[in-house]
Specification:
Length: 159
């Protein structure tokens, strides 16, 4: 007995709608509007803007790597492995780190890390978030270069 109906080939494209045709047809917003950008992407842009602003004033920052991580590790421990970050921690008012830095070593460049979730929880508005991100980046760069934050950005600490 042969089957008169050939087997159905799997569709190379994922189905975007449910089987009754009532699912979403496409994105809710076009990619040009801010609504289409995720919170993580918007936060990455804030860090990138702050780093670019500082690089224009301080050319030696072109070799510094600016990284965004969701949350800090459980506890900053010193000397537990090759990827340790014990150089610099910026604690918030409740002891949760908002950022950290590491000087170049073992072939790795200088690095500044900004933690997204602790900063988002402390900032109420987009403007507050942008200001706090910039302050964290300025403080970490200042610690990395061994300077005062006010010398890195003269507007540091002003609202």
């Amino acid at each position: 007995m042969s089957n008169p109906v050939p087997p159905r080939r799997p569709d190379p494209r994922p189905r975007r709608r449910d089987r009754h045709g009532r699912g979403m047809r496409g994105p809710i917003a076009p990619p040009q509007v801010p609504l289409a950008m995720s919170r993580a992407d918007a936060f990455d842009d804030l860090v990138r803007d702050s780093a670019d602003r500082l690089e224009r004033q301080w050319p030696q920052l072109s070799g510094v790597e600016f990284v965004v991580q969701e949350v800090p590790p459980a506890a900053p421990e010193s000397g537990t492995g090759p990827g340790d970050w014990v150089d610099g921690w910026l604690d918030g008012p409740d002891g949760v780190p908002l950022g950290r830095y590491a000087a170049a070593r073992d072939g790795r460049p200088d690095r500044v890390v900004v933690y997204r979730r602790p900063i988002e929880l402390r900032a109420r508005t987009r403007d507050d978030r942008a200001l706090l991100v910039h302050e964290v980046v300025v403080e970490q760069v200042a610690e990395l270069l061994g300077l005062a934050p006010e010398s890195i950005d003269p507007r540091y600490g002003q609202d």
